[in-house]
Design brief:
Length: 92
Amino acid sequence: MQLSRAVFSVEAVKRASYSLMALYDVSVTLSDDDIVCTLTPATKASPMETAERDFRREVVDQDLRISIEQRTEAYRDTILGLAFSRTGLQDG
């Protein structure tokens, strides 16, 4: 299966691979324009007839999660900074 590097990040593919590793072993290689993924069953019970669909869905999910993380990073850092500034853990 090929995924466009212009659309998806390698990080999203890695996260998707990790998320589905109980079902599929994923081999990832890079070309100039694509991320090439080869899926093999992790167990005899792995549903290979839906492997490509499942993997594509997971890559999209992980890609969106990364996008949200990047967009909300400043807010998250501010909230954590405020939370830890009121604990007294920094006094010393």
